[in-house]
């Protein structure tokens, strides 16, 4: 959902502005966004910011029963965070940051990005993470040729683009590969399942002794059951 924004001048009383600014501060947003949201609600118009918030709220609800992934949601923010732990010596924490572009898909057709972030000085863990990140990218390069993707590696951080949703050509129940207009709940489900899969495969590879071939087999097995790709 893309909504063009234009600069307008409004005459408002100082008392109204003071209250708006105080409320915006409490909600973690700014004056313009808050006024835009209030006016949109008054004329029953749904803003891109509201859609992003709905998606994140749905992800939080979907993950509420998870023992592996804990959500940290900041109201009115363009990103949310999920945390997980590795069964690796001192149980290091991994952070998954899901960011969605408020204006919709960018010029590359991406609707957001997923960042996987570690804080560790363990040489062994860093090498294991880099090996997993590289292997995971190779697998997706092989099986996700129909999905535009971009990866960025920074030591113990991987950032992967989130593509505009398309139908999975490998899923036998679906054949149409055109772009999909998913509602907030549907997109939340797709993102949640992808993060769950990534987390499970990473733990299996780094902590469970999974080989690269087993990693590829497990990914392919899940791919055949997935109807929508991002």
Explained architecture:
By secondary structure, this protein is an alpha+beta fold. The chain contains six helices and eight strands; from the N terminus they run αααββββαβββααβ. The strands form two sheets. A six-stranded antiparallel beta sheet has the order 1-2-3-4-6-5, with helices on one face. A hairpin with a 7-residue loop joins β2 (79-85) and β3. α1 (14-27) packs across α2 and α5 (184-206) runs antiparallel to α6 (212-223). The longest helix has 23 residues, at 184-206. The radius of gyration is 20 Å and the shape is globular.
Helical segment tally?
6
Uncertain spans, ≥5 residues at pLDDT below 50?
none
- Proportion of helical residues: 40-55%
Cα shape: globular
Essential attributes:
single chain; alpha+beta; 6 helices; 8 strands; 42% helix; 18% strand; globular
Q: Can I get a quick summary?
A:
With 230 residues, the protein is an alpha+beta fold. The chain contains 6 helices and 8 strands. Strands 1-2-3-4-6-5 form a 6-stranded antiparallel sheet, covered by helices on one side.
Q: What is the topology?
A:
Layout: H1 14-27, H2 31-42, H3 48-62, E1 70-72, E2 79-85, E3 93-100, E4 110-118, H4 123-143, E5 151-154, E6 157-163, E7 166-167, H5 184-206, H6 212-223, E8 228-229
Antiparallel strand pairs: 1-2, 2-3, 3-4, 4-6, 5-6, 7-8
